[in-house]
Write a structure and sequence with these properties.
Layout lengths: L2 H25 L2 E13 L6 E11 L4 E10 L2 E5 L3 E19 L5 E20 L7 E19 L4 E14 L4 E14 L1
Length: 190
């Protein structure tokens, strides 16, 4: 093997290593932001609330990242009887570690997230006969939260995903209220 051939092989191997390292460096960090809509479902209420919110994150690798979300709801009936009713609304603020598994040769991926969230429910009680009995109160708790879902990469810069979420339990003084939700989101990557 002459010197020119050795030099070409060394240059080729060096270029391949450099390109691989450059590809890893270029991916190392992909921020994204998005919006979501869904259903917020506390136990023992008449109606689930419509939820909507924003989320954003940063992927350190193609698999691992962090994500933050703010989710709020419209008013929904906790109960509505002949002489009294109660409505609720909620806010969730969370920070999660995420893991994505991309199915080979497809744009489809599975996503899991686990972290901490603050779950707050505001309640308005109305006595239909005596308005002096009306009152408003709020319950909140911070704890472990998470979710599982499926997503699809529409392009290299846009994805949609459906998630099943579990939020922290809320103590209302009488019992623990389990809260879950389903969301559909779309986000853009930078």
């Amino acid at each position: 093997m002459n010197t020119l051939q050795k030099a070409l092989i060394a240059l080729s191997v060096g270029s391949l290593i450099s390109v691989s390292a450059q590809a890893a460096v270029n991916y190392a960090g992909q921020p994204y932001v998005g919006v979501k809509i869904g259903q917020y479902s506390p136990d023992d209420v008449d109606d689930d609330a419509v939820s909507y919110g924003v989320y954003g994150g940063y992927k350190f690798t193609p698999e691992f990242g962090v994500e933050a979300e703010y989710l709020t709801t419209g008013d929904a009936d906790a109960f509505n009887e002949r002489f009294e009713k109660s409505e609720y609304s909620a806010d969730v603020l969370g920070l999660y570690a995420t893991y994505d598994y991309t199915f080979p040769n497809t744009g489809l991926y599975a996503k899991g997230r686990l972290g901490v969230a603050k779950n707050e429910i505001d309640v308005d009680y109305t006595d239909k006969l005596d308005s002096s009995e009306n009152e408003s109160f709020s319950y909140s708790d911070t704890g472990v939260a998470g979710g599982l879902g499926l997503g699809y990469n529409i392009s290299s810069t846009a994805s949609i995903e459906a998630m099943y979420n579990i939020y922290p339990k809320i103590e209302d003084g009488l019992a623990d209220i389990d809260v879950s939700g389903v969301t559909l989101g779309a986000h853009f990557k930078f």
